[in-house]
Design a protein that fits this description.
Blueprint: E1 3-8, H1 14-19, H2 21-31, E2 37-41, H3 44-52, H4 60-69, E3 74-79, H5 86-98, E4 104-107, H6 115-129, E5 136-142, H7 152-162, E6 168-172, H8 179-189, E7 193-198, H9 205-211, H10 219-225, E8 229-232, H11 241-260
Parallel strand pairs: 1-2, 1-3, 3-4, 5-6, 5-7, 7-8
Helix pairs in contact: 4-5, 6-7
């Protein structure tokens, strides 16, 4: 392993950036002190907005080109994506195009890539959240997508059930299990209190506005009108050390496999 490229979608909320992306970048540099680590942001809109604040970021192709120019020949690409959706497909295509300039280029999987990953992620959230009271339901807000990768979200909810936790629901802003689905399922559980927590790497626009906002379209507003006491936890997944470890363990596993294979 000559170099690591950490790829993120990005956020313009610099407070959340520092707590999430900043944290995983620091963790990676501490864990692999002798390995050059580069960063890339996949969202062109976010790169442009960050540039207006003076923060320079690179797209995937440009970051890989810089790595090649630096003499790096073997690259592990670590994403901070939650599911294998549209952004992950685009990353794979960018890496396929860039691959000829390297002796080896491997893209590591997103967070929810297998049953073991679902269970680990569910355990990490439950450990961070603490015991959920009998009169309370924890609702996790994911991004969601029309891509087939959206199936990871209902599978995650099943993982909570397998761990014996019936009072966790998973919904999405843009996927199959949207707010209407969450509200229907909440009526069956009849909680007095709902805890809203983002299942997103950062607590950016979707967390602050779609989930916790005071506007008419927010999940907080809708569930409050349904008669629930609603509390919002503005913490991205990247703020949870156990989640960051799940991502970084992919590097260790890939490096081990490469050294023994």
């Amino acid at each position: 392993m000559d170099g690591i490229l950490i790829v993120c979608f990005g956020t313009t909320h610099l407070d959340s950036w520092e707590k999430t992306y900043g944290a995983i970048f620091r963790d990676a540099r501490e864990k692999y002190p002798g390995v050059p680590i580069y960063e890339a942001v996949t969202s062109g809109v976010i790169r442009k907005k960050l540039a207006e604040t003076g923060k320079k970021t690179w797209d995937v192709i440009s970051a890989l080109q810089r790595m090649g120019e630096a003499g790096i020949s073997r690259v592990l690409v670590l994403t901070t994506f939650v599911i294998a959706g549209i952004e992950y497909d685009r990353l794979l295509e960018d890496c396929r195009r860039a691959a000829p300039q390297f002796a080896a280029l491997s893209v590591l999987p997103p967070l929810l890539d297998c049953p073991a990953g679902l269970e680990q992620a569910a355990k990490a959230v439950l450990s961070r959240q603490g015991k959920i009271r009998e009169d309370t339901v924890l609702v996790l807000l994911g991004h969601g997508t029309g891509h087939r990768g959206d199936f990871a979200y209902p599978a995650l909810e099943c993982a909570f059930r397998e761990l014996g936790e019936e009072r966790v629901l998973v919904g999405t802003v843009e996927g199959y299990q949207g707010l209407a689905s969450v509200r229907r399922r909440l009526t069956k559980l009849r909680p007095q209190k709902v805890l809203l927590r983002p299942f997103l790497f950062t607590a950016g626009d979707h967390a602050k506005n779609d989930m916790a906002g005071e506007g008419e379209g927010s999940w907080r507003t809708a569930l409050t009108r349904d008669g629930c006491q609603v509390d919002c936890i503005l913490e991205g997944l990247g703020e949870i050390p156990a989640i960051r470890k799940m991502f970084l363990d992919r590097i260790r596993a890939a490096a081990y496999n490469n050294s023994t294979g």
